[in-house]
Amino acid sequence: MPEYSATEAEVAARAIRDRTGSHATSIGIILGSGLGGLSRQIDEAVRIPFAEIPGFPAATVAGHEGQVIVGKLGGRQVVALSGRFHMYEGHPARLAGFPVRVFRSLGARELFVSNAAGGISEKLKAGDLMMICDHLNLMYQNPLIGPVAPDEIRFPDMTEAYDTGLRKALHAAAKKVGVELKEGVYAGLLGPTYEAPAEVKMLRMLGADAVGMSTVPEVIVARALGMRVAGVSCITNAAATAGAPPLNHEEVLATTARVGDLFQRLVVEFLAESATT
Ligand code: HPA
Questions:
Q1: What is the pTM of this model?
Q2: pLDDT one-digit tens code per residue, 1-13
Q3: Is 249 a catalytic residue?
């Protein structure tokens, strides 16, 4: 049984380096459902399918390409994951967070996460981009359970999981691009069901602004490894409401397709901006 440990992350990182050469990676990027288009803007890109990386199962979700892409973006050396490992696919929390260990092994000290999410706050509508300020781990599992790497924090602090400096860089990038960047709390649920209307009411009472089925395990691992994190949710739909039309994955992908360009410009500008913070 794989443990998705630091040693396994080193093996995966070595396999990636064998293909790309030993660049010092500055930031890891995770591209959510329908947001993988950004990877096509990466210069000098080397694309490696998940199936060719030790410890990575193949991606199975529509809208997720299942590739690691190494190259240059926004003036920085990046490693991007187009697709990710969700717990609703049957993966353990440790695997959901494993790519972040690999990013760290490649040298990344920062993580940028993105996802598609349902809007809970009335201030959010489909097509909005929301900077994640904090999260609720409602997956009831934690990717740190298990062995601790030598440079890993056993009990990581989560008071500033989403880094203040990187949040400023995101705001500055949004201003340059001319996009209104909302802010809010992301609730991570296991899925794969969308929420019942009563659950959406509950999430609102708990303080969630948006809801999705990913991201939280990745951010937790990054914090345990001392990485600075920034995150953006693409609000693809209003979270379930009684009487509203049913939700489906096609609607999620249609919204990410509509907002994709703006999202890409925001991230490229953010990378340039955060390189100096
Ligand atoms: N709920 C959970 N995850 C999601 C949603 C949603 O409404 N939209 C996109 N991902």
A1: 0.96
A2: 789 999 999 999 9
A3: yes
